[in-house]
Design a protein that fits this description.
This protein has 271 residues and is of the alpha+beta class. It has a single domain, classed as Clam (outer membrane lipoprotein receptor (LolB), chain A). 29% of the residues lie in helices and 41% in strands. It has seven helices and eleven strands. It has an eleven-stranded antiparallel beta sheet. β9 and β10 form a beta hairpin.
């Protein structure tokens, strides 16, 4: 009985020491340290499963238009070279729901939805064509290099399983953020002029990146955006409201996946 009690006590002490060492590790690292370690870990990641919930809403006042859609995306991916299978459910408020399969092999992307029911290749070779550049930077895993310009602004929050990197963007940071996305979209000079003529009001723009304490793999990503943008060159009173929420969860790290490309996709790749 005494022996069992001693074993229990020693076990509790070991757990306490481990917890204390984790706390010390958290205290000894800055947000920038964690950011860089997560980038290094991401570069070594071989496989990942991703689930993304994406709500996209916008409206304009002149003309009066609005659009709202919710996406649910689940994928298994190999990262070197990039290959993934993705299942997509799209639920627009003002349109017909649709489901799709998406496959990517390196720089070629193919999609088949349940409306056309035929495989089509995206000319851009990127899912940004379907869901925008932000989703392309979140899938199949988060592209931390996109946030290099803001790495000194992250705030570190220790949590039970690791760290949260938290970022709240100001109006000027939001404009810089949009320019980064704009450059990824290969916008024209005219588009850049429009971007520079906008005056955004930031109701909310918060980003949270979850990171595992042991592997430094990114476990989740959250973005909450709510802005109202006015034109500084037009006097028609037009405004553009945007609300976006992204919740991405990453799992099954480095677990090999068998991505079986449909025969039609393989035939297209071979051409």
């Amino acid at each position: 009985m005494n022996k069992a009690f001693k074993i229990l006590v020693f076990g509790l002490i070991a757990l306490l020491l481990t917890a204390c060492s984790n706390v010390e590790a958290k205290k000894g690292m800055s947000a920038q340290d964690v950011f860089e370690k997560a980038k290094e870990a991401s570069a070594e990641l071989k496989n990942v499963r991703t689930h993304i919930s994406y709500d996209d809403f916008w409206k304009t006042t002149t003309p009066e238009e609005r659009h709202s859609v919710k996406f649910e995306m689940t994928s298994d991916a190999a990262l070197n070279p990039v290959a993934f299978k993705q299942n997509v459910k799209a639920r627009p408020v003002d349109g017909n729901a649709w489901d799709a399969e998406v496959y990517q092999l390196e720089d070629r992307v193919f999609i088949k939805d349940d409306q056309k029911n035929i495989w089509e290749e995206l000319p851009s070779g990127s899912i940004a064509e379907l869901f925008g550049s932000m989703i392309a930077n979140v899938h199949p895993t988060l592209n931390l290099e996109f946030f290099d310009a803001f790495k000194d602004d992250f705030v570190l929050e220790p949590i039970d399983y690791g760290y949260n990197l938290k970022l709240s963007l100001s109006r000027e940071q939001y404009k810089e953020f949009k320019k980064l996305l704009f450059n990824l979209d290969d916008g024209s000079e005219t588009d850049m002029e429009v971007l520079n003529s906008e005056f955004p009001l930031i109701n909310k723009f918060d980003i949270v990146i979850g990171i595992d304490i042991n592997t430094f793999y990114i476990t989740d990503f959250k973005m909450m955006l709510d802005t109202t943008t006015y034109s500084t060159t037009q006097i028609d009173g037009n405004s553009h409201r945007v609300k976006q929420t992204i919740n991405a969860v990453y799992s099954h790290f480095d677990k090999a996946v068998d991505i079986k490309m449909p025969a039609d996709v393989l035939d297209a790749v071979a051409q």
